[in-house]
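Q: Could you fold this chain for me?
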Amino acid sequence: MPEGHTLHRLANRQRKLLGGKTVAVTSPQGRFAEGAALVDGMVFYTAEAWGKHLIQRYRQTARTQRGERLIHVHLGLYGAFSEQASPMAPPVGQVRMRIEAADIGVDLRGPTACQIYTPADLDALIARLGPDPLRRGAEPERALRAITKSTRPIGALLMDQKVIAGVGNVYRAEVLFRAGIDPYTQGTRITRDEFDALWADLVSLMRVGVRKGRIHVMRPADDHGAPSYAPDRPRTYVYRRSGEDCRICGTTIAHGVLDGRNLFWCPACQQ
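A: Sure. Below is the predicted structure, expressed as structure tokens.
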């Protein structure tokens, strides 16, 4: 599932491509036909991300908020947007939503959610999400309170979108390694200094992810040796490296399952 940096990068891209343009919105697949009809012919005003959620805002004109409508997209495991110049070719596959301006268009396939939102729906979504490290004005104190009051493992808490929005399996594994924290440490045992370091690292690394479109977690001095887990991915310290030697100490990287998700860590570096 895409992590938060992917959604923020996607929002930036859609603002650049479509912002301020009148668009035709359809649902070639048919599953979003009623929702598409509500925004068809409106101005694509902007897009924004909240954790792993994308919000598109449509307006009657670029200069007024009156009549604004919202679309909420959650890509889930299989959702993806693709782009092509206008006029767009006939849709291929199960296109849930097509957005086409005079010069460019995008297709959405396979999302978990694609739905019309009201302002109240958006408020409810934001209320149930934890702070997003990539959003200005995020309140890390909310995450600190949630973590330090919980006996759940920090490895589970970091993946809980109600605690911190946008963190997925890669960032979870890598920031815990970089901080030297055992993923099974109870939240109540996380110190203020440890939390501050985790939060600052997430902000820094996820910003790099937005800029580069890939998750880069290796410190320059460590970025050598065994190749990445996949040819098109940057190296990681522990993610998907179970059974291999730790890049720092040589200990075998461990693997477990926590709340149904694969977990990777170094038993020596993370104590």
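A (continued): The chain has a mean pLDDT of 97.
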